[in-house]
């Protein structure tokens, strides 16, 4: 169904939201604060009810108190007023159930008794139990033809496990009611990529291999493993960040214009990009991909341990905490344009940024010493300090400067441009879209599977070539080899803004 995503007026819809894993990190740190903000901004209709489900003995008040203290630590004092908080907490119920026990789902059915609102089931639990919960919901007669399910990333560990999980979820819910989260798609600036590319004719005509020389995507994190060794060491940065977030960003940059803003029109175009990603073969694995693992270093002036010294670490782990790669989208629009991707933990600053480097003029008439400056760049800052800057060249001012060129940005900083507008957290946007029943910010099954196909192939190559990660000190921009990878092409990672 084509839904109206253009409207400023949200399609307000009462729902019952059942959140599995309600005492977990994601639920308390992100989901309840996001729901609070929606409520405070008047976006949760008064009938909407929220239910936390977990296996700990707690009553309703006890759970509300936990959510209340999560709000205190996650929501700014300015946004946390007593009236909004009380109204929000009053919507919240709690059920203790063991998700593995089908009998206990009767409690959820009873909670729903008499409600005609659609139920949204949010699975904020490990993917290994998504299937079991879906089957128990069905067996326990908790669902109807309006129920939707939201599942967190990562879906599986590789193509095979991802297909298994998707099969079980798909036995219970049709694709049109499955919402697979990639929280990067909920970030305001990521959505802005669609507006930037498809609303501005200026870029529409330039967005191809005739005009773009190369593209950089950097997602640098300052955090380390944060007590998640068990999960992270199985995954590594390639599965944790590239398979989902970085490939989604690449798709939004590289895709052809969708014919409209309908979810499937956008997702069809993203799938075409994933299918066109060039596989890494033979020597390209060693040449165009760099794996890294951080050793002890510093963060914010403090010493921090290396990956192998983190709590719970297996000292012989070869899991990568950093990846840089050069890839290509092998189609008419992008043939020959390198896409350089890099992402890592324990880097010097948190920075998610896309840089589009445009080609130089065919004939250059200025000072030969300045030739390397003479190209435009479009810098899209996703976080922090969200904004867009177009690096242009002007004449340096002053009587003694002759026709010297000066690069400078035409800069749109979202915080100063829209000072009264709070930039919402990604989960606010995503939760709102699920409640409205709109899927355009969620990932379709085939997107996930094409992404896994490409990643699996890369991992097989790593394994075949026995490529251990290269070391980099915490607080640095990754292994020296990641800098060499781009400099050997006569380029460098863009670090100014
Ligand atoms: N945390 C994050 O920032 C992110 C998380 N995700 C994804 O979100 C999901 C949740 O992650 P996160 O919150 O970090 O994980 P947590 O381990 O913190 O939370 C999972 C919750 O599920 C509960 N649970 C697990 N099994 C059962 C069961 N059989 N019966 C009842 N309760 C159960 C756990 O209960 P108990 O406490 O008793 O073990 C826990 O409260 C995962 O899929 C993760 O990959 C994705 C992106 C970021
Ligand atoms: O999905 C994940 O994302 C976070 C980074 O998210 P951000 O919104 O803070 O950029 C990452 O730290 C985590 O390892 C990964 O699972």
Automatic annotation (TrEMBL):
Question: Which molecular-function annotation in GO is an example for this chain?
Answer: NADP binding
Q: Where is the active site?
A: 245 (proton acceptor)
Q: Which gene encodes it?
A: zwf
Positions of the Glucose-6-phosphate dehydrogenase C-terminal domain: 195-493
Pathway listed: Carbohydrate degradation; pentose phosphate pathway; D-ribulose 5-phosphate from D-glucose 6-phosphate (oxidative stage): step 1/3
Q: Which sites bind substrate?
A: 183, 187, 221, 240, 345, 350
Q: Which GO terms describe its biological process?
A: glucose metabolic process; pentose-phosphate shunt, oxidative branch
Q: What is the lineage of its organism?
A: Bacteria, Pseudomonadati, Pseudomonadota, Gammaproteobacteria, Oceanospirillales
Protein name per UniProt: Glucose-6-phosphate 1-dehydrogenase
EC numbers on record: 1.1.1.49
Glucose-6-phosphate dehydrogenase NAD-binding domain location, by residue? Answer: 19-192
What is the documented function of this protein? Catalyzes the oxidation of glucose 6-phosphate to 6-phosphogluconolactone.
Q: Which Pfam families match?
A: G6PD_C, G6PD_N
Record's GO cellular component terms: cytosol
Give the record's family classification.
Answer: Belongs to the glucose-6-phosphate dehydrogenase family.
Q: Which organism is it from?
A: Pistricoccus aurantiacus
List the catalysed reactions.
Answer: D-glucose 6-phosphate + NADP(+) = 6-phospho-D-glucono-1,5-lactone + NADPH + H(+)
């Amino acid at each position: 169904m084509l839904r109206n995503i253009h409207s400023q007026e949200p399609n307000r819809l009462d729902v019952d939201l059942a959140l599995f894993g309600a005492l977990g990190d994601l639920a308390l740190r992100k989901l309840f604060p996001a729901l609070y903000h929606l409520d405070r901004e008047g976006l949760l209709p008064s009938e909407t009810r929220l239910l936390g489900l977990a296996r700990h003995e707690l009553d309703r008040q006890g759970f509300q108190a936990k959510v209340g203290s999560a709000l205190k630590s996650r929501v700014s004092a300015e946004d946390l007023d007593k009236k909004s908080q009380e109204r929000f907490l009053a919507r919240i119920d709690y059920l203790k159930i063991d998700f593995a026990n089908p009998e206990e789902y009767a409690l959820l059915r009873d909670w729903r008794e008499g409600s005609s609102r659609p139920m949204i089931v949010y699975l904020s639990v490990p993917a290994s139990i998504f299937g079991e919960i879906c089957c128990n919901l069905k067996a326990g007669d908790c669902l109807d033809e309006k129920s939707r399910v939201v599942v967190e990333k990562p879906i599986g560990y590789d193509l095979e496990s991802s297909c298994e999980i998707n099969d079980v979820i798909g036995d219970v819910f049709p694709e049109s009611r499955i919402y697979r989260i990639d929280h990067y798609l909920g970030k305001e600036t990521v959505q802005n990529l669609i507006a930037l590319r498809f609303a501005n004719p200026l870029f529409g005509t330039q967005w191809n291999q005739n005009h773009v020389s190369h593209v950089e995507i950097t997602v640098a994190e300052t955090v380390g493993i944060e007590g998640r060794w068990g999960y992270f060491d199985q995954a590594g940065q390639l599965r944790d960040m590239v398979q989902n977030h970085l490939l989604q960003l690449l798709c939004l940059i590289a895709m052809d214009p969708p014919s409209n803003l309908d979810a499937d029109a956008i997702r069809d175009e993203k799938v075409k990009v994933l299918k066109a990603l060039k596989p890494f073969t033979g020597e390209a694995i060693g040449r165009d991909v760099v794996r890294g693992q951080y050793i002890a270093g510093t963060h914010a002036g403090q010493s921090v341990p290396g990956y192998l010294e983190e709590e719970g670490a297996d000292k012989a782990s070869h899991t990568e905490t950093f990846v840089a790669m050069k890839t290509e989208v092998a189609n008419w629009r992008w043939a020959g344009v390198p896409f350089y991707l890099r992402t890592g933990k324990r880097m010097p600053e948190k920075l998610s940024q896309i840089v589009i480097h445009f080609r130089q003029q065919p004939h250059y008439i200025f000072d030969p010493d300045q030739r390397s400056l003479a190209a435009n760049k479009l810098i899209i800052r996703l976080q922090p300090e969200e904004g867009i800057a177009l690096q242009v060249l002007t004449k340096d001012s002053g009587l003694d400067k002759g026709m010297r060129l000066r690069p400078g940005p035409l800069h749109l900083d979202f915080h100063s441009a829209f000072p009264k507008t709070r930039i919402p957290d990604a989960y606010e946007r995503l939760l709102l879209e699920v409640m409205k029943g709109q899927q355009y910010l969620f990932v379709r099954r085939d997107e996930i599977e094409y992404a896994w196909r490409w990643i699996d192939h890369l991992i097989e190559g790593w394994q075949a070539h026995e490529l251990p990660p290269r070391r980099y000190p915490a607080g640095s921009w990754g292994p020296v080899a990641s800098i060499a990878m781009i400099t050997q092409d006569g380029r460098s990672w863009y670090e100014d803004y």
